[in-house]
From TrEMBL:
Molecular functions (GO terms): ATP binding; tryptophan-tRNA ligase activity
Stored Pfam families: tRNA-synt_1b
One term under GO cellular component: mitochondrial matrix
UniProt-recorded name of the protein: tryptophan--tRNA ligase
Known EC number: 6.1.1.2
Species for this entry: Setophaga kirtlandii
Keywords: Aminoacyl-tRNA synthetase, ATP-binding, Ligase, Nucleotide-binding, Protein biosynthesis
InterPro entries membership: aa-tRNA-synth_Ic, Rossmann-like_a/b/a_fold, Trp-tRNA-ligase, Trp-tRNA_synthetase
């Protein structure tokens, strides 16, 4: 949610890809792609954002904490990032999502958005369940 220099962003993408491959992810057995090249993520985020109310987003603790660390000036990107996360999950009709404790509320938002969408437009998105990671 913070601006990055283009060269740094490109290098971060390469570094992240290298780290994923170094962890043993086999690209012959799984699909590895750059999410930013899939326009449907942003398109669905827009649609879901139109169904999500601002007070719900303002209650998320991550918004409060990060906003405080950004000199009390939270950005729109910071506020709407959880909706983009919901779009990332719902776009692929995910049923189980591995998350850490710090992301449980964001997954609950994705669940709420899926339920709201389904109620309004008919059953379309499965309601994803959390798989809590253990550290």
């Amino acid at each position: 949610t913070l601006p990055k220099e283009p060269a740094v962003l490109r290098q971060n993408i390469l570094d992240t890809t290298a780290a994923i491959l170094a962890c043993g992810i086999d690209p012959k057995k799984c699909l590895l792609f750059r999410q930013s090249l899939v326009p449907e993520h942003a398109e669905l985020a827009w649609i879901l954002g139109c169904l999500t109310n601002v007070p719900r987003l303002l209650r998320l603790p991550q918004w409060k904490m990060k906003r405080a660390s950004q000199n009390s000036e939270g950005t729109v990107g910071l506020l709407t990032y959880p909706v983009l996360q919901a779009a990332d999950i719902l776009l692929y009709k995910s049923t189980r999502v591995p998350v850490g404790e710090d992301q449980v509320l964001h997954l609950e938002l994705a669940q709420d958005i899926a339920q709201h969408f389904n109620k309004k437009y008919g059953e379309f998105f499965p309601v994803p369940k959390a798989i809590l990671s253990e550290l």
